[in-house]
Amino acid sequence: MTAVIPPPFSGRELSNPPTDGISNLRFSNHSDHLLVSSWDKTVRLYDASANALRGEFMHGGAVLDCCFHDDSSGFSAGGDNTVRRLVFNHGKEDILGRHDAPVRCIEYSYAAGQVITGSWDKTLKCWDPRGASGQERTLVGTYPQPERVYSFVSCWKSFSCSYCRKTC
Q1: pLDDT per position as a tens digit, 19-29
Q2: For the chain, how many structural domains are there in total?
Q3: What stretch of H or E contains 138?
Q4: Where are the transmembrane segments (predicted)?
Q5: Residue 60 domain flag
Q6: Which of 13, 45, 92, 116 has a Cα at 20 to 30 A from 67?
């Protein structure tokens, strides 16, 4: 039997990478833009085909997740308990709101026009980014969960959430 050797990887390293571990990365649905969140407290937007950093925002703690809204804006969440909207082409950010513990995951629902976040405070929260800034104006709902939220996936009107219950 002859072993099949895969061809060498022909990828490339982006310039100005994060200085610590990457927590998530996402490609835009509409371009070669790449959104990267990191434990170095940054969210970075790259033009992957041009190998160029297009923008960067700092959090107060590790950034645990990020997602796109459109090609030049997105959302991020992390260890500083905040949910942020990032507009890279204007260098502007807003805090949509906060959780009571680190925010582990974030997703923008195009179907609902809302940002959904999952936190280690055992809640899912939905935010309307079209409203004025401030938690009292953008928070649509808070949904208690049985345990800390580690990940979730949403697809149209379906939603699935994962937890970890420690047993001894």
Answers
A1: 999 999 999 98
A2: 1
A3: helix 135-138
A4: none
A5: yes
A6: 13
